[in-house]
Every structure is written in C-alpha cells, then in structure tokens.
Write a structure and sequence with these properties.
Elements: E1 15-20, E2 23-28, E3 34-35, H1 44-60, H2 71-79, H3 82-85, H4 89-106, H5 116-123, H6 128-148, H7 175-184, H8 190-201, H9 205-208, E4 216-217, E5 220-224, E6 231-235, H10 244-253, H11 273-286, H12 294-307, H13 312-319, H14 325-345
Antiparallel strand pairs: 1-2, 2-3, 4-5, 5-6
Helix pairs in contact: 2-4, 4-6, 8-10, 8-12, 12-14
Length: 352
C-alpha cells in the first residue's frame, strides 16, 4: 500500500504567511488569528482552525447595503477598521455586541444628528456595569466617525455615564488564602502549577493561558498583554529582593515543558481563557476559597511588590498597568502599614 504523503501544495485563501528565521507563521487575514503552523494546510487540524476563523470573519464582515450617512453605515465601517480589528479577541467580542445593539436600535438614523443626550438616553435603561461598556462602544464609534469627518464633534465623549456603585472588585488573595490553596493542591498537580504561575506573574487569565517558554529571554518573561497591548517584564530566572519565597514556590513546581505554552490540558491542548477561569475557580472552591479568582492573584502580586518596597515603575513594568495612578493604591497602603509596623518596633521608654 502506498503511503499518503502530505505536502504544502494546498494553499487556502485568506491565509497570511510570514517567514521568520525559517519558520512559516500563518494568520487568518480577516480575523488576524494565528493558525496552526506545525501541520500542512490540508490537515484536519488546520482546516478546522481555518473554518472557525472563516465563520468568524464572515460574521464580522460589514453589510455593504447600509445607506451612506446612517448609523448603520458608520457601524459597519468601524467594524471593518483597524481600530476595531486590533482589539483583543475578548474585548472585540464585547464591543461587537454593543455596536450591534446600537445599530439594531438606531441604524437608520443619521450620524450627523447625534448629540450627547442621545447616548445618555440609550444607556439609561441599562445597569451601571452594562451602561459603562455601552458608553465605551459609543465613544469608540464617535471617535472613529469624527476622524472620518462624518460627525462634527466627538459627541459621545461629552455624554455623562451612569455612576458605578463602589465595590472592591475581585477579592484579593491573602497570605492565609495562599497557604490554604497550597495545602489543598500539593506540588505535582496542574492546579498548583497554575496557581504559582498566576501568583508570580500577576498575569490576567487571558494572558496566562498564552505564556510559554518562548517568551523567556535573558532571564525575563516578556509578553504583550491581550487587553491593553502593553508590554510586560517579569523576572523569571532570578528573584528580586524580598520576593525570594514566592519565586522559589514557582520554580519548585515547574514541569518539563514540551509545548508552546505552560498551561495545557491532559490531552496537551492549550486552555482557553474562559475554560481556564472556570477551571481555576473550581480549584479555589475545592480549597474552601469561594469567591476567589485568578484575577485576585493579580492584586496579591501587586500588594506583594508594594510590600517588598518596589517602585511604582517596577510594578508597572511587572503587571503592565497603563497608568501609574492604577497602582499607587497598593504603594500607599503598603506605606501606611509599614508606618504602624515601624511604630510597633519602637520600645516604650520606661519612666524613671
């Protein structure tokens, strides 16, 4: 029987091929998603991935029939723009839902007639959290439309959003929580490795599932965040002063990695952001840590950096926050705690 030998003679449409150092990287032109590069294009794995992106690209392809000057036409143009396509996968899906809702509700209206009060009327029935996302979508649209000259002003920037209720957001892990998780999930379990990778890197779930050995260069783990596109620099081969214990905890559970990413399923496949978040939340509940999430370990890392006396710039480089104000909360809290701890060390003077 003749063996069937695959070749690269099959070349699918809408596949962008880039060769770097002898390796051919392949991306879907419409969605910009990376496609498998270790199999030929007629392999079932490649075909499945390509078909998925084809369907996604078709769903995001604008309808050319919308009348010029309408909100529908403006939405379609934005969804085909680099401003939209350059967003991370997760955020792009969120923005798409709100743009579609805007289009469905007012698509036939004229862009040029829009005022801030129209945006405020649209978000009024929504909950504060949903209204916040809708307002951001409006602002992306109005900013894009103004650059194209379709509206006179960036009207959505002048719209007033709904006040968000004060909340602590994701709960921060405490030292006791960390100890409880490590007790429940000993070294050698995938839950423990995922935990140590999260606590040391402070990465979001959307980023931690993409981390791999190829991102380690000159002792630093370097990657670009999905959400903000900002670059992150995490010490990997060494531990900065005051952080030796957490670094040693990660190194103690590092497996022999034979995949492109650190976190894989039992079948060797990369985990998705959504599946990983759910899986890790289950692991936390199994350790009697209900309500704690992967994102809470990001707060734990920021707090640990502040407690170790790291500068705001070092914390920004490590966790990738876009502005310094986002992390000053942790440094101020550490400074207040240190002030009281220093007071405890001062021995009272005995009366003569």
């Amino acid at each position: 029987m003749r063996r069937h030998i695959r070749s690269e003679r099959v070349k699918l449409p809408r596949v962008h091929r880039v060769t770097r150092k002898g390796v051919v990287y392949k991306y879907h032109r419409a969605t910009r998603a990376e496609l498998p590069r270790d199999v030929p294009e007629d392999h079932p794995t490649f075909l499945n991935a390509w078909s998925t992106e084809e369907a996604r690209g078709a769903a995001e392809r604008p309808d050319p029939k919308a009348p010029a000057g309408t909100i529908a036409a403006g939405c379609q143009s934005y969804l085909a723009s680099r401003s939209y396509l350059d967003l991370s996968d997760g955020y792009r899906a969120l923005v798409r839902r709100h743009v579609d809702a805007i289009n469905k509700r007012a698509g036939q209206a004229k862009m040029a007639h829009l005022l801030p009060r129209h945006v405020e009327t649209d978000i009024e029935p929504l909950t504060p959290a949903v209204a916040s996302h809708r307002l951001k979508a409006w602002r992306k649209l109005s900013g894009y439309w103004k650059k194209r000259g379709w509206v006179e002003s960036d009207f959505a920037q002048a719209a007033t959003g709904k006040q968000m209720p004060k909340t602590e957001g994701h709960r921060e892990w405490t030292i006791e929580d960390v100890a409880a998780f490590r007790t429940r999930w000993p070294e050698g379990t995938p839950q423990r490795f995922a935990f140590e990778l999260l606590q040391w890197t402070g990465a979001r779930a959307s980023d931690v599932v993409r981390l791999g050995p190829g991102m380690i260069k000159r002792g630093m783990l370097t990657f670009r965040q999905q959400k903000t596109k900002g670059e992150v620099f995490v010490p990997w081969s060494f531990a900065p002063a005051g952080l030796e214990k957490d670094h040693a905890a990660l190194m103690a559970v590092m497996p022999d990695v034979s995949h492109m990413v650190f976190l894989v399923t039992v079948s060797g496949k990369a985990r998705s952001n959504k599946a990983f978040s759910s899986w890790f939340a289950d692991a936390a509940r199994a350790a009697a840590l209900d309500g704690l999430s992967a994102h809470g370990l990001r707060k734990y890392r920021l707090n640990a950096l502040a407690e170790a006396g790291k500068s705001v710039l070092q914390m920004q480089a490590w966790c990738g926050h876009a502005t310094l104000s986002e992390i000053e909360h942790y440094t101020r809290r550490a400074q207040r705690r240190a002030a009281f701890q220093q007071e405890q060390k001062v021995k009272p003077v005995k009366p003569s």
